[in-house]
Amino acid sequence: MKPIFTALSLLLLLSGCSPKVLHGQTAARTLELDAGTSRAPIQPTMYGIFFEDINFAADGGLYAEMVKNRSFEFTLPKTGWLEPNTDPFSLNARSGKSDIIKTARDQANVNFLRVTVKGPDYVLLNEGFRGMGVKAGADYDLTFDAAVGAGDIRQATFALIDTAGNVLGQTTVDLAGAERKEYAGTIRSRATAAKARLRVTFTGTGVVDLDMVSLFPRDTWKGRKKGLRKDLVQLLDDMDPGFLRFPGGCIVEGRTLARRYQWKKTVGPVADREYLVNRWNTEFDHRPTPDYYQSFGLGFFEYFQLAEDMGAEPLPILSCGMACQFNTGELVPMDELDPYVQDALDLIEFANGDVTTPWGKVRRDMGHPEPFNLKYIGVGNEQWGEEYIERYKVFNEAISAAYPDIVIVSGSGPFPDGEFFEYGMQQLTDLGAELVDEHYYRSPEWFRENATRYDDYPRDGPKIFAGEYAAQSVAIASPDNKNNWNTALSEAAYMTGMERNADLVVMTSYAPLMAHAEAWQWTPDMIWFDNLESYGTANYYVQKMYANHAGTDLLSVTEGGEPLTGREDLYASAVKDTERKELYLKVANTGREPQRLSVDLKGARAGASVRVLTMASDDLEAVNSFSAPTRLSPVESTVSLQGNTLDVTVPSHAFVVYTFTLQ
């Protein structure tokens, strides 16, 4: 059959244009952006951070301690520690040995290591958290407790060694005295290595007791000794978060009540904080991590301090007396609930109380006499059913009576719909709950299709905290989930719907927050790191773009009088910041074609230049990585405003933030 050339096809052939480009140049969609009317205030807490100790996010991650099992408190007390020359079949078998000694104490830090050195070849190694990341020229601060027993042991040498056994740096510390005391030294690394280990050797023979063997980089967040990993906190701080929710997540609940998170065990001297097996250490058959414990060096005081550093509201979540219902579902009897309620009341005193109060004094003794100004507290993580509502009532009554200004965060369960959700929301609404936490881990399609989720929510009920959400590229809890552009773009589209409903939705946070590349249990995650490096995913940059352009007032942006909620693949929301005198238009184009927009600005005058931040890729499977950490990240440009009209083309598969300077 002979081809038929129409006038249009001939014109396209001669001009070198494709129909797609021609369409993009001629089919502008007209939007009206009303900058003169505030539809609702944007709460300062609108975009925040949810932290949970999953995927080695605390020990081995945010908490910069490099020695695993520093006080020999794991269930298998020598976990993380190796003695390469004590194998009975080795020629050096008689070089020495070590034994775990348990003290008479029955609380925290009950074990120490008694080392018997018989010859110069005795070596003790700590493997770190999948190794230790060290950098050339950097200093690492060593501390340890020791007591010298029988014999003539005079010195201990601590060396950082690479995988080949080469010494990267070392320090020798003189030992003396039978009384246990703390020693210190500094190791400067001569080279960079991601898999270093800490080697301990001794001068002399005899017996020495070791405990609290600790190594920290000197260059921590804000230079605090034994503090937090600087690059990871910087990624969080760069988001300018409105709140920090901690410590989880399912670790709040525990697999059993005995293994729940108990905040009182995470404050005070670090050496006195009781270790706990992390509830994620054997949760998934696809990623067992039996060496995953919580030292609580990152405890509630440090969480409050981190929130303060970032200018974020602290939002602690406490056990409501129910173990994880996906595990044992163990319940504390109602007549035994008082200690759990008292924990909540005492936490508020710890955060806000005068230094003359018992828990205010604990905070003062930790170096923070000023209150943390806690405003929110969460009761339970994602419990459901009658048992949760029954316990919530008790907490709500007690907290409201003692601290009527504290906002209590309740939960609607682990799902965004279904019987558990409907029951919980109805009960909490009837009880007059102030703020309800919703969780949803669903497909990218679900996020795009539910951008109108909150449009019809009743406005006389609870406010909404979207406390945990993330698009799953494969399925919930699948180890094959990826932080690809499809998930991030779908979240960007969905977030326009949360922002459009800012009168109802007052807190939002992606989850989980971060993951160690070699020690993760759950995907996807917003930030990935190894022992040396870290990077934000495409999802991170979407969250950051929203948080950095949160604004103070919600505006209306419409097409034909209707909001943009996915019609022809276009989603949009708009806010203004009265303090910065800026206006932010956020647009997500989830379609395959570029879309030309003519945006008519009403009710305000803007400067001639509009700043544009664009994330776009037609490869929906694209991801960031250690080798390409900013492959998917915002690209900045500018465009001129024609009078009060913005004429732009939004690329296909793109999320764009337009910043107008208001005059």
TrEMBL record:
Q: Which GO terms describe its molecular function?
A: alpha-L-arabinofuranosidase activity
Keyword terms: Glycoprotein, Hydrolase, Signal
Protein's UniProt name: non-reducing end alpha-L-arabinofuranosidase
Question: SUPFAM superfamilies recorded for this chain?
Answer: (Trans)glycosidases (SSF51445), Glycosyl hydrolase domain (SSF51011)
InterPro entries assigned: Alpha-L-AF_C, ASD1_cat, GH, Glyco_hydro_b, Glycosyl_Hydrolase_51
Reaction(s) catalysed by this chain, per the record, are: Hydrolysis of terminal non-reducing alpha-L-arabinofuranoside residues in alpha-L-arabinosides
| PROSITE patterns on file | PROKAR_LIPOPROTEIN
Its organism's taxonomic lineage begins at: Bacteria, Pseudomonadati, Bacteroidota, Saprospiria, Saprospirales
**What sequence ranges are listed for the domain Alpha-L-arabinofuranosidase C-terminal?**
467-654
Which residues are the signal sequence here?
Answer: 1-23
| Any Pfam family matching the protein | ASD1_dom
